[in-house]
Amino acid sequence: MKIICSRNSLLKSLNISMRAVPSHTTMDILECILIDASSNILKFITNDMDLGIETIVEGHIEEKGIAAIDAKIFYEIIRKLPDNDVRIVVDENFNTTITCEKARFQISARSGEDFSYLPIVDRDRCITISQFTLKELIRQTIFSISAGDSNPLMTGELFEIRSNILRVVSLDGHRISMRIIHLEKDYENEKVIIPGKSLVEMSKILSGEIDETVTLYFSDNHVLFELENTMVVSRLIEGEYFRIDQMISNEYDTKITVNKKDFMDCIDRSSLLVRESEKKPLIMRVSDDQMDLLMDSSMGRMNEEIDIVKEGKDILIGFNPRYFNDALRVINDEEITVFMVNPKAPCFIKDEKGSYFYLILPVNINQNQYA
Amino acid sequence: MKIICSRNSLLKSLNISMRAVPSHTTMDILECILIDASSNILKFITNDMDLGIETIVEGHIEEKGIAAIDAKIFYEIIRKLPDNDVRIVVDENFNTTITCEKARFQISARSGEDFSYLPIVDRDRCITISQFTLKELIRQTIFSISAGDSNPLMTGELFEIRSNILRVVSLDGHRISMRIIHLEKDYENEKVIIPGKSLVEMSKILSGEIDETVTLYFSDNHVLFELENTMVVSRLIEGEYFRIDQMISNEYDTKITVNKKDFMDCIDRSSLLVRESEKKPLIMRVSDDQMDLLMDSSMGRMNEEIDIVKEGKDILIGFNPRYFNDALRVINDEEITVFMVNPKAPCFIKDEKGSYFYLILPVNINQNQYA
Predict the structure, then answer these.
(1) Between residues 288 and 307 of chain A, which touch chain B (CB distance below 8 Å)?
(2) Where are the domains of chain A?
(3) Residue B353, by phi and psi: left (phi above 0), alpha (psi -120 to 50) or beta?
(4) What is the pLDDT of chain A when averaged over all its residues?
(5) CATH domain B126-243 topology
(6) Which residue would you say has higher pLDDT here, B366 or A101?
(7) Quick check: B254 pLDDT over 80?
(8) Which of A87, A289, A365, B154 has its CA 20 to 30 A from that of A23?
């Protein structure tokens, strides 16, 4: 195999391919990048068995062939080369020579015979959205997946399509994050659970441009994300997702509207006094036109008043401040509205047009202590 | 005690004071910052027993007093406050209230009776240089102190004054770094060893401005750095420093001049193939007008030619590439000159005007293998 590519086009493709190279694995071949120059199109393929990426590389094939190279070393070499043409030659014994200007690297490659190619996903069930939208949907929900493996369903996100509505949901047992967007046309109903890890990597590959699109193809076990020169395939999580609609209610006894930045700054300050191990709740004391925020820990005490607009009953309720901040951070509105029922029932943050819904469970507090 | 300061002036002073707060200690009081409002000047004092800092804080004292507050919590609180006036009130039981706009923190302070004030350093033996110069001197030598405690002398830097010359030296057994500057006037001879850790912290406090000065006062056990509003006192390392002049020679058999950036890029690339544990040498094969750099490791092989100007004999010599890069990184010249004697003798990099001198010991290599 003989190929010539500019250092920058190699690096551009590698930045995508590296997303599916595991940092630790017992299978050597997964740490490799497959350079596929067997046709007229040069491709890099990586696959960590959860996520597989195939991306087209700009360059010139002088002699066809296939080789698997240790991805990390290859990436480091390309990264450190000057910005000029790079020539990669692999001989019949898979000795690989990489030259650029006066620098010459010799490393060994492998045949790639044992490499796992991407699973085939039929291209019949799909939706197309902008890369910006998908990147935002992931960012605005990914924080409330569960890291632990106690329940595999919680480590992924529900992507649910009902005619022209896409709903993305994540939950970890303490909170639910939901984002809803309208699609440009009607699609068939779909319901898949995509691993959170795949979505994190995918969001790093997405350009974030509104005028670039991504198409998602669904099969029973996989989802394929198709970009202009790149295909990303992720396995799906098996099982029936939680019945979200049963957990969501629109009833409330207290409704408060508050400036998001003031609220966040205050939560931020209250968190100073909480050590990770302590799990002290942030107390919210809601009365007419004013919310008193209170934090009491072994380190000290903080309180602060915030102006609000209130409808309904007064309430004294406690929350894990981090859960509130996680949700507020990804809401783009200047003012947010929080709906509460009682000190033991979940509260929810949602907008009028129904584009987001964040549910947070309160922490049990001694009502008398703060009355 | 009652004081009022702007949040930004508190933060500015804290950023200096925090440099002498240890991250781990068994003595609680060292984790505190002493707020000294006992006179008309408001001061913050911190002291980790190696390094002590006293800095003047801009602000208004309403009621005099002294209190010691947990430095980390205090710093975090101030950092998260809005940019406005901050009022700090400590009552007779050392309950401390910090208020800013509507935010109110209550934490406990201590009397500070057991606080260690800064040692007194007589102001008779001193030199004055620009903050920029001191910052540069530290940056250009600090990398070759020894981290280990095998020999305490190696964990510090020699500051040696001989009439109008200041020489700063560090060494770790594999290399020596030396910087020489001319002072504006003649001073008495001094020879002190300042702990590397103190210099690292000091260089973060220095502004890096040419027109701001720092005065160093020397006593038998301490050095005092005096800036406009800040005093930093460091203990000195006891003992007789190594006899540097005996280690330095000006004789050579090979002299090469090379473009610094080309040389560094090439060393950088060769280091890719070296795992931390392997310690593979970088081979330099010097012949007329050309130097061949070669790296051979379990991961692969790299070689590259660089143009040089050579005087004297050909040579084949091996080095730890990191030691070379560390020195080249802090030399501001575009071209550098390396002097070599033989494959087992130290090489040195120095400039004509004698402002720097870097000595590096070679690694033993099998001459036949690379001949």
Answers:
(1) 299-306
(2) 2-108, 126-241, 249-370
(3) alpha
(4) 95
(5) DNA Polymerase III; Chain A, domain 2 (3.10.150)
(6) A101
(7) yes
(8) A87
Contact A300 B73 (CB under 8 A): yes
Nearest CB among B73, B80, B299 relative to A73 is that of: B299
- B78 has pLDDT over 80: yes
- Residue range A80-92: average pLDDT? 97
Q: Is A102 within 8 Å of chain B by CB?
A: yes
Domains A126-241 and A249-370 share a fold: yes
| The pLDDT of residue B278 | 78
**Which of 3.40.50.12780, 3.10.150.10, 3.40.390.30, 3.90.550.10 is the CATH number of B249-370?**
3.10.150.10
Q: How confident is the model at residue B25 (pLDDT cuts 50, 70, 90)?
A: confident
Q: At what angle do helices B71-80 and B7-17 cross, to 10 degrees?
A: 140
Q: What residue type is A247 in one-letter code?
A: M
Please say if the pLDDT value at position B27 is more than 90: no
Residue of A nearest to B76 (CA): A272
Separation of first and last alpha carbons in chain A? 77
Neighbours of B182 (CB within 10 A): 10
Q: How far is A179 from chain B (nearest CA, A)?
A: 30
Structure tokens at B188: 């008495």
Decide if B37 contacts B3 (C-beta within 8 A): yes
Q: Is A323 strand, coil or helix?
A: helix
In angstroms, the CA A346 to CA A367 distance is 17
Structure tokens at B23: 């991250």
Contacts of B266 (CB under 8 A, 6+ apart): A103, B293, B304, B306
Give percent above pLDDT 70 in chain B. 100
Record: contact A302-B106, CB cut-off 8 A = yes
> Residue A241 has what pLDDT?
96
One-letter-per-residue 3-state SS of B187-211: EEEEEEEEEHHHHHHHHHHCCCCCC
Question: Following DSSP, what letter does each residue of B110-159 receive, concatenated?
Answer: B--TT--PPPP--SSSEEEEEHHHHHHHHHTTGGGS-SSSSSGGGGEEEE
CATH of domain A2-108: 3.10.150.10
State the smallest CA–CA distance between residue A47 and chain B in angstroms.
Answer: 22
What is the per-residue pLDDT across A300-341, written as a single tens digit (0 to 9) for each?
A: 999 999 999 999 999 999 999 999 999 999 999 999 999 999
pTM score, two decimals? 0.92
pLDDT value for B28:
86
pLDDT at A75: 97
**Across the interface, do A302 and B105 touch by the CB < 8 Å criterion?**
yes
- Among candidates B80, B106, B304 on the partner chain, residue whose Cβ is nearest the Cβ of A269: B80
Say if A105 is an interface residue toward chain B (CB within 8 Å).
yes
ipTM given for this complex:
0.88
Give the pLDDT band of residue A274 (cuts 50, 70, 90): confident
Residue A148 has pLDDT above 80, yes or no: no
Whether B102 and A272 lie within 8 Å, measured CB to CB: no
The whole-angstrom distance between B314's CA and the closest CA on chain A is 21
Cβ–Cβ gap B301/A82 under 8 Å:
no
**Cβ separation B300–A80 shorter than 8 A:** no
Interface residue A82 vs chain B (CB under 8 A): yes
CB B169 within 8 A of CB B193: no
Q: How close, in Å, is residue B272 to chain A by CA atoms?
A: 7
Interchain contact, B272 vs A300, CB within 8 Å: no
Could you report the per-residue pLDDT of A42-51, keeping only the tens digit for each?
Answer: 999 999 999 9
pLDDT bracket for residue B276 (50, 70, 90): confident
Query: In terms of pLDDT, which residue wins out, B54 or A27?
Result: B54
